[in-house]
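ugh ok fine here u go
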Amino acid sequence: MSELPIVVIGAGPQGLAAAAHLSERGLEAVVLERGEGPGAAVSEWGHVRLFSAWPELVDGAARRLLEPTGWRAPASGYPTGAEWVGGYLAPLSAALGDRVRYATTVTGVSRRGSDKVVDGGRDTRPFVIHTTDANGDESRLLAGAVIDASGTWGLPNPAGADGYPARGEAKASDRISYRIPDDVSTLAGTHVVVVGAGHSAAHAVLRLTELARREPATRVTWLLRRGNVANVLGGGAGDELPERAALGSRARNVIESGLVDVVTGYRVTEFRRDAGALTIVAEDGREISGVSQVFALTGFRPDTSILRELRIDLDPVLDAVAGIAAEIDPNIHSCGSVSATGARQLAQPEPGFFIVGAKSYGRAPTFLALTGYEQVRSVTAHLAGDHAAAARNDLVLPATGVCGGSGDFDSAGSGGGGCCAAPSVLQVGLRPALATS
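structure:
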C-alpha cells in the first residue's frame, strides 16, 4: 500500500494544508473536493470577517510551498472569508496543481473487498474511495491512507431545541435560513428572528441591527436557549483574539441600546404560519409572532454517512473523534483550554484513517484554523513514519477568557465563570410585547 496515494477528502483550509505537508514529505497526495474550487464552504460565508488574524490562518508547510512562487503572506489584518480564499487558499490550490480534483464527490470510503464486519486481512487491504463526478459518473480510487477533512458546513443543526427540526420547520424552509446573512436590505421594516448563541448568531444580529438603525421599523429578536447571555458575549478583555472580543462587545452594545430584543430560555418546538408570517412556539408555550424571516444559527454536525463501512470511534455526546472529545467538550472547556490534538489523539480503530479539521470536533464549537493545522502537521508526520514529529505538540491557542462551558446553560444564574476578565451577567428577559402564552 505504500505505493498508493494518500487521499484527502476536502479542499478547505485543512485539506489543502494536509496536501502541502504530504508533498513536503515526499508522499503522493490526492485531494478530492465536491465543490468547484478551493475553500468552497468558506466562499459561502465570504462576506464574513474572521476573528483570526492572517498569521493564524496560514499553515507552515503551505507557506513554504508558496513562497518560492513569489507569494507573501499578509503580515497583519483580519480577512473576510472571500479574502482568505483569494489571498491564500486559491494560490495554495494552484501550487498543488493536479493533486487537487474538483467537482468530485466522495460517496463512501471502505476497505477493498471488505465491509465493516470483515476482520481477516483487513489492515493489509487498501482503502477504496467511491466517488461521483459532476455528471453522476462513478469512479473508484485506491488509497494507502485517508484523511477526512470534509468539515461540517453541509449539515447545519436545526432550529428545533431537541436536535430534530421543530414541527413545521421543514414546511417553513422558505422563511428559515441556516447561514449568516449578507445583504439584509430586503428585510427592512420586518420582524426578523435569530436563533442561536454562537459567533455566527452574533454576526447575524449585528448585521440586522445595522439595518434597524437605518430603518427603525425593523424589529430584531434574538432567541437563546440559555438562561442568560454571559457566555454569548465572550471573555471581554480576557480574550486573546481581539476581534473575537470585539464581537462580544458589539453584541453587548446593541443589546443595551435596545436595538435587539433578547429572549432567554427559549427552546423552539414549533413554527406555525399565521396570516403569511411565522409564529415561533417555545417548549414552555411562549410564542413570538409576526416573524418574516428566521436565521437559525445553532451550529453544525458532522456527516459520517460516507464512513459507515469503516471502523471509527466517535464520542456519543459530541460526535467528535473520541480521542479528543474530553478536551473539547463545551460543557467544560473553552477553545483556549484545549491541549494537543495530534495523530495519537486522532487515531481510529481503522489504521491509516484520520478525521481532521472541524469534522474532528463533531458538534463542539470554537474550532480554530490553528488547531486544524496542528492536526494535519502531526497526522502527516505519522503517515510519513516520523513519529517523533507526530508526537510533538506545536499548538498554542489563544485563550477565550471564558473557562466554563455550556453544561449548565439552563440556569439563569450561572454565567460559566471567567479566566481573566469575564463579562458580568447581563440578564435580559422576555418582553411582554413579544409573546403571548
